[in-house]
Amino acid sequence: MATSLLPVSGQALDAQSLVAKIQKLCPAAQLRPDCDRPAVKVPLAHWPVLAQQLFASADLLFDLLETHTAIDWVQTGQIELVYVLTSLQCGHHLTVFVDVARDNPVAPSLCAVWPIAQWQEREVFDLFGVHYTDHPDLRRLFLDDDWQGFPLRKDYADDFMLERPS
Amino acid sequence: MGLVTDNLPGALLPLPGGGALLTAIDQVVNWSRANSLWPLTFGTSCCAIEVMMATGAARHDLARFGAEVARPSPRQADLLIIAGTIVKKMAPRLRTLWEQMAEPRYVIATGSCAISGGPFLYHSYTTIRGADEVIPVDVYVPGCPPRPEALLYGLLTLQKMIREGTTLARPGEVRKPVLAALPDGMTLHQVRAEIAELVQETATVDRAAAATVGASYASASRV
Ligand code: SF4
Question: For the domain that residue A115 is a member of, what is the CATH number?
């Protein structure tokens, strides 16, 4: 079971009851058994509501969005958004996966739930080109403002890149 | 003042009531410059911690060579230590800092990244392939990251170059010790096989020998 370094006030749930609770809140959420931490896959349409519930519901209390990143699956045409959540009050962790279409990657911004998402969503926008609706300031973060393309997409290429000689 | 690595060049003539020093102004100036380098610490990634900060800290103690006065301001520094990866967005800032430094200024590039782009040479959309694409570099200290001793060696090399007046006079000149291509008749495959063999060799631990070494350390620390 996951442990927290911080003083814990709530009750940490084990993986099974955590996933069961989440599936009760959102029946469309599926368990991802291939992860070493509790992880669920959530359809995009259900995600904003579930995020709010994860944050607010008394026995889950996911108060920290630890990191947000993405995976580009070129073959299946999906960009998989990854949210790593922690509850500092209870000491449990959860990873949430959400698929968006690669050719129209639009997702709702979670700034209203976790304010830190502003920065993390800017980074994912910068490198993967995912557009977040209702984000207050969706600009490039690491790359120059006039950069063309999204370099962490698997099919990204530009003239600057060097091929490895074989 | 730290360790002065050689004497003031010139001849001391003992005279009644004192003495006279015969020397050349250039030599005195270069001698003092070499022994009081003030580094501008330009650390952008792992090398900054592994080499630059470790060299400045107590164990390796850069102060022994008169170069401990690290300045975050380019106006007060005359040695730019580049420690880390330079990316496209950082390159103009590096150039600005270098331009703001007063002459004479010297540059040491530490680590593969600052020398050639290092591990990010291929398939990188943003890593500059060597700091010398942006500013002239006097001394290259190879490694990923280099040992702090290597930076000390680089510093001593720079001091020697300053004393001899052989630092880079013309900006833009590149004296790159890294070969961009493999030597004739050598393939990447051979290089990899050789490295694998060396790693295999050094990673094999002779347990019996290690035990005796450990025991001797233990007894030494008890003394
Ligand atoms: S040379 Fe190696 S240690 Fe130094 S900055 Fe580059 S990756 Fe890091």
Answer: 3.30.460.80
